[in-house]
Amino acid sequence: MKFPILLISSILLSSFCLTVSKAVLAAEETSIFSQATAQSPEPQLESAEDYFNRGVYYYRQEDFEAALADYNRAIEINPNYVEAFNNRGAIYAQQRKDNLALSDFNRTIETNSDYAEAFNNRGLIYVRQGKDDLALSDFNRAIEIDPNYVETYSVR
Fold first, then answer.
1. Which residue of 36, 47, 129, 149 sits 20 to 30 Å from the alpha carbon of 27, by its own alpha carbon?
2. Per the confidence metrics, is the pTM higher than 0.90?
3. Distance CA 134, CA 110 (A)
4. Angle between helices 32-39 and 48-60 (to 10 degrees)
5. What residues contact 32, with CB distance under 8 A and at least 6 apart?
6. What pLDDT does residue 35 have?
């Protein structure tokens, strides 16, 4: 099954899925991250989750290099932080660093075989690489894990 190239190009630019924690959403609502980064260039972060949450904030502000640095630090602290691997992979995918993205999505799936977003994201890379059978398999697996995961239906 071949996917229309123009459709996939527009989907790939916007469909890589990030994991966003409730803490990040709450922090954005109260501007905690923006106040912290405006007041001091290096707020005191300690846990992998702290770095992950700030990475999500930076990503949503389109500061991808800062987001990558925070996801890298979260992974250094917790080498099994699947959400950080998935989100870092999404940035690599947007930067068209497909091998790095695939490595992160594979690591996410190896660590948590029920992570629908990682299957969706890896499927998008496979589409870009012309590996349609692998892409379809990943999209089907994402839907099997989460039948309400609408992003995958739009590309499958």
1. 149
2. no
3. 16
4. 100
5. 26
6. 52
C-alpha distances in Å from residue 103, one per residue of 108, 112, 144 = 9, 14, 22
Residue type, 26: A
| Angle made by CA atoms 58, 101, 149, in degrees to the nearest 5 | 75
Q: Cα–Cα distance between 78 and 96 in angstroms, integer?
A: 26
Q: How confident is the model at residue 41 (pLDDT cuts 50, 70, 90)?
A: low
Closest CA to 103 of 86, 115, 120, 116: 86
Distance CA 47, CA 57 (A): 16
Distance in angstroms (rounded) separating the CA atoms of residues 122 and 50: 26
Contacts of 101 (CB under 8 A, 6+ apart): 89, 90, 92, 93, 121, 125
29 pLDDT higher than 50: no
